[in-house]
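Form P-L/3: holo structure prediction, ligand glycinamide ribonucleotide.
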Amino acid sequence: MVKIGVLVSGGGTNLQAILEAQSRGEIPGGQVSLVIASKPGVYALERAANFGVEGIVVPRKEYPDTKAYDEALIRELKSRGITLVVLAGFMTVLGPDFIQAFPDRILNVHPSLIPAFCGEGYYGLRVHKEALARGVKVTGATVHLVNEVCDGGPILLQKAVEVLPGDTPEVLQRRVMEQAEWKLLPQAIAMICEQERKEQE
Ligand code: GAR
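OUTPUT (holo model):
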């Protein structure tokens, strides 16, 4: 069984989607065993508690730089035997130490069709604002492996979502989550867990 750690910074609707998929038996090879929040008081921690999953806060503010923060995160994850890390609305930049600690085993969900509207500065609602400002008619979500390039790792899954007349960033964000993110992320996790299982056979 692959032990999964989910990193969050906010509301945690993607975390909720993962935990619900797990409850329905859709992630047979994996188990979410830790949720780490980058700041205290985020709703994602309540969602973890509701599913009986350990949730902790490793506050970004308390660490002087990325390197120190990476080390703290690695310590928490490795000490629990976690081998797959999922960034589910995690708004903090991770450094090379973290990426090298989990090679090809860090997943990120991004709310656009990469390579559109991605890279530094493109996160959360900002992505949808830019998509609307550019006037695209189709957007979507991407799940990719994380490497040293921001939003530049190998793409695992993508799903397109229509932009509709009158969309606000909030309305579009919700549609992209419902139609794409909440489906793709659990699916990608299940895929990686299945791959691990095959490799260990
Ligand atoms: C999601 O839309 C996710 O794709 C995005 O933040 C939101 C988090 O929502 N992530 C990024 O923009 C990362 N670059 P959630 O906390 O409700 O899952």
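COMMENT: The chain is about 40% helix and 20% strand.
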